[in-house]
Amino acid sequence: MNPVSARLLSQQLVAPEFKDPADVVAWFGAMQAQEYKAMRWAVTMRTRKPSFKAFEKAFNEGRIIRTHLLRTTWQLVAREDFPWMLALCRNKALAGLRGWMHSNGIDIPDAEKGRIQELFAEYMAGKRCVLKEDLDLALKEKGIAMEDHRLSYHLRLAEFDGLVCSGDLHPTKRTLALVSEKVGPQPQPAPDEALALFARKYFRSHSPATLEDFVWWSGLNISDCRSGIAALGDELAVVRHQGKEFYCHRDARTRGFRRGTLLLIPAFDEYLIGYKSRHVVLHPHHAAKAHNQSGLFYNVVALDGEIVGNWRPTQADCGISIFKEGVTLPEETLRKEIDRYKLAQKR
Questions:
Q1: Which of 32, 87, 204, 294 has the smallest set of CB atoms within 10 Å of its CB?
Q2: How many domains does the chain have?
Q3: Phi-psi region for residue 135, left (φ > 0), alpha (ψ -120 to 50) or beta?
Q4: Residues with Cβ < 8 Å from 24, sequence gap 6 or more?
Q5: What are φ and ψ of residue 239, in 5° steps?
Q6: Residue 81 domain-assigned?
Q7: From the CB of residue 118, how many other CB atoms can be counted at a distance below 10 Å?
Q8: Do 219 and 293 lie in a common domain?
Q9: Are residues 318 and 337 in the same domain?
Q10: 230-283, pLDDT tens digit by residue?
Q11: Are residues 143 and 119 in the same domain?
Q12: Based on the domain organization, do 168 and 222 belong to the same domain?
């Protein structure tokens, strides 16, 4: 098994199987969505015909939801997965949030939280989406003024309580909607079934991956992650690479990769952030070119799955720079990938 080509196929980065952006998100279970603009390319580049408008349509229809979930960071999840995934991840995510609040000297009593969420629900009822500024103004009209940081924590708590989630896609700002109106009632699997489904979605979309990869990505306890893996039984095969055990899902494809594949991968993409074992596609000597020690991930160029350079979406020519010595990008292939990215933004 070639672990690099296997990851490209599992991640739908080559020979993508889906047309609908919402199906891509459902395949992954959760996709990192730290950067508001980069998330659109992260999803659409994994479809057969990348289209930002198709992403916007799925997002505005509520088939793709953006919320804080794994590791208390931004994620995209499919509408049908949102309720059970929130229930599964909420306690760990909430513990992380409480830690941040404590370090910033902010305490929000339950009575205050309940009152603010009542006002959120009252103001947002029947509105397709609102901005954070709208909620701030609504609170002030009730005689409640709070500094921006505290309001942000209230919104995060409202997310973890299943009250609010993403509204429509705005060009530059986050919008909010009520979960009851945007997501609506969805089937909920039993807790043990949810854990197995969570593991299945991860290993199906990230194979081959290690236990440590799953622990990192999910933010769950290692015991829960072991239980999720055990629940999959013979769905997972154990393979060894560079002396470590990797799990490969039985649905992982082995065909579809062609040499000369070049990809412009956005910042915070699952191809890197979804693993602890990034050395499989990124030489440790070049790690600082792909992400820093504070958790900031950059836009990277992958050639045959290996991370070899950076790119800049804001530049007309995408500002390609190569950091791996001896690598020359095939000009025609690079032009096609740049054109694919630019065309996706237009259609």
A1: 294
A2: 3
A3: alpha
A4: 12, 16, 18, 31, 43, 46, 47
A5: -125, 155
A6: no
A7: 11
A8: no
A9: yes
A10: 999 999 999 998 889 999 999 988 888 888 899 999 999 999 999 999 999 999
A11: yes
A12: no
The gap from C-alpha 148 to its chain's centroid, in whole angstroms, comes to 25
Q: Identify whether 100 is part of a domain.
A: no
Per-residue b/e over 171-194, b at no fewer than 16 CB within 10 Å?
A: eeeebbbbbebbbeeeeeeeeeeb
Structure tokens at 23: 């199906």
CA-closest candidate to residue 121, choices 176, 63, 78: 176
Q: Last residue of a domain, which of 131, 164, 186?
A: 186
Q: Three-state DSSP class for 176?
A: strand
Looking up residue 123, the CATH number of its domain turns out to be 1.10.10.10
Residues 6 or more apart from 55 whose CB is under 8 A from it?
A: 21, 40, 43, 44, 64, 169
The reply to whether 245 and 273 lie within a common domain is: no
pTM of model > 0.90: yes
Residue 130 in tokens = 């609102």
**Within this chain, do residues 199 and 141 fall inside the same structural domain, yes or no?**
no
Please provide the size of the chain in residues. 347
274 occurs within a structural domain: yes
Which residue range forms the structural domain that includes residue 132?
Answer: 108-186
Q: Tokens 């998100």 correspond to what residue?
A: 25
Q: Do 339 and 267 reside in the same domain of the chain?
A: yes
Mean pLDDT of 159-180: 96
Q: Contact at 8 Å (CB) between 263 and 231?
A: no
H/E stretch holding 64 reads strand 64-68
Our CA dihedral for 279, 282, 288, 293, rounded to 10 degrees, sits at -40
**158/154 Cα distance (integer angstroms):** 6
Task: Calculate the average pLDDT of the chain.
Answer: 95
Nearest alpha-carbon partner for 340 in 264, 272, 266: 264
Q: Are 124 and 149 part of one and the same domain? A: yes
Beta-carbon contacts of 136 under 8 Å, excluding residues fewer than 6 positions away, are 148, 151
